[in-house]
Amino acid sequence: xxxxxxxxxxxxxxxxxxxxxxxxxxxxxxxxxxxxxxxxxxxxxxxxxxxxxxxxxxxxxxxxxxxxxxxxxxxxxxxxxxxxxxxxxxxxxxxxxxxxxxxxxxxxxxxxxxxxxxxxxxxxxxxxxxxxxxxxxxxxxxxxxxxxxxxxxxxxxxxxxxxxxxxxxxxxxxxxxxxxxxxxxxxxxxxxxxxxxxxxxxxxxxxxxxxxxxxxxxxxxxxxxxxxxxxxxxxxxxxxxxxxxxxxx
Length: 249
What we know:
mainly alpha, 15 helices, globular, disordered N terminus
């Protein structure tokens, strides 16, 4: 297996990406730039672990691309309600997302890697939105912060940790009465205690009930995140019920 041209960390590029992301959280490409800047040798270590698993050997031997399955929307839509694949299809449709769109956003300049390592790295990219379903975290800012904390525990990619810390601080300032930092740290703890999801046979899991997937990988339900979401919803509902005072003419 050939080595990448460089496994050095690039803190200046990482800081630039963080600043850009904090200014515009919808600029998803900054996430990929940040992860690349702080990737180091982490992906290589994770790849070695993946290659030692039964699923890893099958995926690499077949040159299997998860993107092919996730792009087959007709096949996903035909799965029974409650399955991971059907839930993924509905989630992506509701959020106006596509697996192909994530590929486009991830196109950044990066050091060359061996084909098998690239396949593994792309597979990890594809599972991000599947993890939204499995963990129960939404695409709101807090949900994304919790999910990247979960993903840091699973992958050890430093870029995820940086995003989680900065996002938690920003959201906590906006919601000082809510346990935001506890919610994000809970995501990290749940990522540590869960089974190793980068090594999962996601193609097979698509036809399984979401609850069965969670049970198989010991993914615990998020408590703090949903508590905060419920409190925000109650606050919004109460605000909408406030009487509108007439403006003197």
